Amino acid sequence: MIDVQCYNRQRVYGAKILFPVIRETAEHVLFLSPFVKQLLQTGIGVHIDVTMVGPRIMRKINREQRGIDELTDVLSFPAHDMREGALEKPLDPWETFAPDDQNTLYLGELVISPDRATQQAEALGHDLERELMFLTIHGVLHLLGYDHESEEDAMTMETLQRQLIRSLEEVPSGFVALCGRPNVGKSTLLNQLLGRTLSIESPKPQTTRHAIRGVLFLDDAEIAFLDMPGLHKPNNALGRAMMKTAMQSIRQADIIALIIDASWHPYIGEEERRVLEIAKEDHKKVILLINKIDRSPKEAILPLIALYDNNWKPDACIPISAKTGDGLNLFINEIKCLLPVRRRMFLEGDETDQTERILAAELVRREILRQTEQEIPYGVAVLVRSFEEEIDESGDRSEILIEADIICERASHKKVLVGRSGRMVRSIGTEARKAMEALFDAPVYLNLFVRVRSNWQNRPQDLGAVGLLPSDSPL
Ligand SMILES: Nc1nc2c(ncn2[C@@H]2O[C@H](COP(=O)(O)OP(=O)(O)OP(=O)(O)O)[C@@H](O)[C@H]2O)c(=O)[nH]1
Ligand SMILES: [Mg+2]
After folding, report:
1. Interval 119-166: pLDDT, tens
2. Are 193 and 236 in contact (CB under 8 A)?
3. pLDDT averaged over every residue in the chain
4. pLDDT tens-place string over residues 337-380
């Protein structure tokens, strides 16, 4: 929970004018902070106090706390040492939480002068509400460890302030789940929409194993796409975890984009039916995407559309090619019409939940999918054990050192994965490294180890270790 407590210690401006705008703005800024999001996901709330004071008191606080004998607009008193949205050092439990509330982190206090805000609003030619929004954003950013001491820091803070002001406008904004059976092209579509590789794609089914978020920031909309494992009947713990992940993403979405293959016979399968039932139960919008039209005759598409339209009446049916990008503008325009209009939910830069560490593991797995056959890729997981960056004098990344384990089911699989004189693992490493260098824009040194861990796909602790157990919290 995000708790913003407002106190009024002056008499000129009423709480009814001041509190709603300050509270809503502060809540919004905290909600968008990746640090706060992470806390909320682990069940920890945050709390800040905001106090309005008259000009005399404001000047006194400014004099006593900063040695500046002048009236100022906003003062911030952070409770923790933070730098650019992250804690400088891990939290000590006794200093972190209020004694009566172990689940809430106190972030500090803002003091605001409504008199000074009014003067500034008049000078700048906008209303008091806008000025209060700006001051609250500025103050909360200070609590989160942003400042304007150096020119570089000031630029970072200004950019964030501009983005945050923009994010207060209401636009079509929300989550779109890309769902469907394995191999229909969900990951290819996500990558095409975002213009970069966030999710590995391959001709082999059941490539994607976890949920992947990619946010498209547009001037007039914000669309968070969710890629997920393909819907299938699971036959082990890994499969069940994958299906749980997929269902969580579907339940979280505002719009369900159900993807089918243009080459399929006109028949609604069990997986598709299940998704459409959930959409109906939860009153979600549905867009049917008929993918891979680049390789199917146009006549094949119409019976598919007619079948779904007659039986389930989706909000839209759009033929697309995730590969060539055909039809994607139509898809985006349709999403804009169907999404609720509300404040943005992400900050530019917070495009994905995929860390470079996860992407590195996935790029190794993609090579295994490409270079090995039969059951081997399905019995493999990749765990990045260390990911270290070297930084040069100018602060740029000069190289990345990565160590990863390829975990397989059997000794016979290990033999194939290592190959004669280590040829296979070297080839996997070379191709994965090239892809990482292109993606991370830095030289990469990659060390791969092949290890056997029989039956890992059925052991919850092993699934957890390779990041494949779905969490119970929303994405
Ligand atoms: N010709 C053609 N191929 C496509 C298109 N979209 C995806 N593919 C191919 O279909 C295969 C599967 O694509 P993915 O994006 O990995 O499919 P997915 O739905 O994410 O599959 P899972 O992760 O296994 O559930 C790949 O070989 C893609 O290149 C398309 O529009 N046209
Ligand atoms: Mg996929």
Report:
1. 999 999 999 999 999 999 999 999 999 998 889 899 999 999 999 998
2. no
3. 93
4. 999 999 999 988 889 999 999 999 999 999 999 999 988 999 99
Planar angle of CA 49, 475, 48, nearest 5 degrees: 5
Fold assignment, 171-343: Rossmann fold (3.40.50)
Q: Domain 2-168 adopts which CATH fold?
A: Collagenase (Catalytic Domain) (3.40.390)
C-alpha span between 182 and 252 (Å, rounded)? 20
For residue 320, the ligand 1 atom closest to its alpha carbon is: 31
Three-class SS state of 184: coil
Among the atoms of ligand 1, which is closest to the Cα of residue 205? 24
Q: Which ligand ends up closest to the CA of 193?
A: 1
Q: Which two tokens stand for residue 364?
A: 């190794």
**Residue 82 belongs to what H/E stretch?**
strand 82-83
Residue 202 Cβ inside 6 Å of ligand 1? The answer reads: yes
**Residue 322 beta carbon below 6 angstroms from any ligand 1 atom:** yes
The pTM of this model reads 0.89
Write out the two tokens for 430. Answer: 């070379």
Q: Would you say residue 94 has pLDDT above 70?
A: no
CA of 295 to the centre of ligand 1 (A): 12
pLDDT digits (tens, 9 = 90+) for 281-308: 999 999 999 999 999 988 889 999 999 9
Question: What is the DSSP annotation of 84-135?
Answer: TTEESSPPPHHHHEETTEEEEEEEEEEEE-HHHHHHHHHHHTS-HHHHHHHH
DSSP 8-state code for residue 354: -
CA-nearest residue, atom 27 of ligand 1: 203
Judge: domain 356-465, CATH 3.20.20.10.
Answer: no
pLDDT, tens digit, for every residue of 374-410?
889 999 999 999 999 999 888 888 999 999 999 999 9
* C-alpha 285, offset from chain centre: 21
User: 475: pLDDT confidence band, cut at 50, 70 and 90?
Assistant: very low
* Ligand of minimum distance to the alpha carbon of 186: 1
End-to-end CA distance of the chain: 16
Quick check: CB of 183 below 6 Å from ligand 1? yes
Q: Summarize pLDDT for 189-225 with one digit per residue, the tens.
A: 999 999 999 999 999 999 999 999 999 999 999 999 9
* CB 365 near ligand 1, within 6 Å: no
67: CA distance to ligand 1 center in Å? Answer: 63
Segments making up each domain of the chain, as ranges: 2-168, 171-343, 356-465
> Ligand 1 in contact with 184 (CB < 6 A)?
yes
